[in-house]
Protein 1
Amino acid sequence: MRAAVYEQYGAPEVVSIRDVPTPTPQDGEVLIRIRATTVSTGDWRARSLAMPPGFGPFGRLAFGLRRPRQPILGTELSGTIEAIGAGVHEFRAGDEVFAFADAKFGCHAELRCLPASGLVARKPANLSFEQAAALSFGGMTMLSFFRRGALASGERVLVNGASGTVGSAAVQLARHFGAEVTAVCSGANVDLVRALGAHRVIDYTRADFTASGERYDMIVDTVGNAGYSRVKRSLAEHGRLLVVLGGFLDLLLAPLAGRIRAHRVIAGPALARVEEFDRLAAIAAAGAFTPVIDQTYPLERIVDAHHRVETGRKRGSVVVTLGA
Ligand SMILES: NC(=O)c1ccc[n+]([C@@H]2O[C@H](COP(=O)([O-])OP(=O)(O)OC[C@H]3O[C@@H](n4cnc5c(N)ncnc54)[C@H](OP(=O)(O)O)[C@@H]3O)[C@@H](O)[C@H]2O)c1
């Protein structure tokens, strides 16, 4: 099968299309023929070793000391079940699905085997393969953070970086959970973010949300410039700061930060749960979360897709399509 492969860390050009062995489903696995996948900020970090401040030494530990341990990137996919391994009862050949391989990667390929009882679900019929491929990275990140932060209906939520993959998922899911949403993005993305359901939008090039005197029950930082010391006066009593992107120091200090003011700082990696994946599928099928697609590239142009992600300015997700 064809796959996008990288064998050394570096610029997008380290990725090339190669023929690699076709996988065979083991017991309990499904073999998925991939129709669409994404190049995410997770792929960008694993390819380039661009890590958040203070995490530099952990990059090679996570992805491979001398060279990438997993030469095929890609955290999420949509496609059709090609074959099933022994003991699989959840799916049949021909079923349309989407799936999240998360940090195991391997979705920038024509085929991927995954455990049937894991993060694989039927593709919502109202979404295209391109949209379904882009559900998991942002959606699972935000379901995990909203669970840890115990988001409640009626709460005031501010999303910093509302036009990216994670931010655009945060806006839609917060709305779905009944929150009153304020979104922060650049002027060019104000209309997009309002269309996603934000009640109020702040253009960060014109106003600093921390200077307005407004207070929020929850602040979601997907940009890495809204640490606790900057936002503490914008958090209501018992407010929570969700540090989706932060430095090593933020992670270390999270358990202590905010204690005096009865705030909570929640940081660290999102941990995907199977029941949350099924919930994500149901929310999307109900029309409450439709991933935003920035641009779509065929697999042959995956290097261009990596370049687009590296700008840090994409709107939603960069999708890569395969086959028909
Ligand atoms: N903790 C976890 O488990 C976890 C999980 C997933 C992702 N992440 C991290 O979360 C980060 C965001 O991921 P993503 O995929 O959503 O990235 P992305 O799609 O590249 O989005 C980044 C967004 O930041 C916005 N932005 C840039 N400067 C800004 C500023 N000064 N103020 C407000 N917004 C600004 C950009 O919008 P404009 O063009 O409008 O400025 C862009 O849409 C990544 O660093 C990723 O590594 C962490």
Protein 2
Amino acid sequence: MQDKPVALVTGANKGIGLQIAKDLAANGLTVLVGSRRLEHAEAAANSIGEDAHALQLDVTDQASIAAAAERIRIELGRLDVLVNNAGISHAGKPGRPLEEIINSGRPSIASLDDVRAVFETNVFGIVAVTQAMLRLLREAPAARIVNVSSGAGSLTLNADPAFPYRTSFGAVYNPSKTAVNAMTLAFAIELEETGIKVNAACPGYTATELNNFEGPRTVEQAAREPVRLVLLDANGPTGTFSNEDGPLPW
Ligand SMILES: NC(=O)c1ccc[n+]([C@@H]2O[C@H](COP(=O)([O-])OP(=O)(O)OC[C@H]3O[C@@H](n4cnc5c(N)ncnc54)[C@H](OP(=O)(O)O)[C@@H]3O)[C@@H](O)[C@H]2O)c1
């Protein structure tokens, strides 16, 4: 049994997830670095230090999810934090320019295979992993769930003609993040009485592989809001959607 609180970060082998894992370890948590490729998880865990452990976890694979939950139960005996960070912006080849990703996501031409694949990872992955980890999270004294969402999924922002990014609102990535927000609220409402806080964080537009490194923010900046929500005390909110500057409209 672990004395320190244990956090699982999905998709933590690179990008914002890796930075969240680093920051949580620096804040005294034992961190499970989730990655669909074990060797990538191991390399990332080694780069963080002895408080980080590799965990094979493909959020679209029920057997992988069940095996991960079982390993956590047997080897650590507790789980206090779940950061649902794993996400994709399209299901095509890596390295596509952002403009091409946005254009191929236009509602009139978007491939349904792409829509399904992105929802499978970004939305159904969160539901599946959260359900599998809830037994352990319910046993923790002050469990926290943070879903890494995006202002790109905000219906209120994108319905405003003055919102600068609204012309990128397509049928693939954006609505997957709208659905992440809906799932955040659904879990938060059901878990309200348990003390488990469930919140959604927007990391901001950040240079990672997801957008072919075109975002202006650094991963260090991007990790701040998800990490703040992990570290909320008992008085902190549940069922919120925010970025570093404060609450965001759903
Ligand atoms: N970058 C931005 O501007 C931005 C803005 C708002 C929100 N976000 C969100 O931030 C989160 C992290 O993205 P990022 O920008 O850091 O992108 P990234 O560098 O591409 O990282 C995405 C991570 O998700 C993992 N992943 C993808 N599919 C997976 C699966 N089926 N199972 C497990 N892991 C999987 C990837 O693993 P592999 O290495 O195996 O592919 C990788 O570790 C995402 O939810 C994204 O939507 C990003």
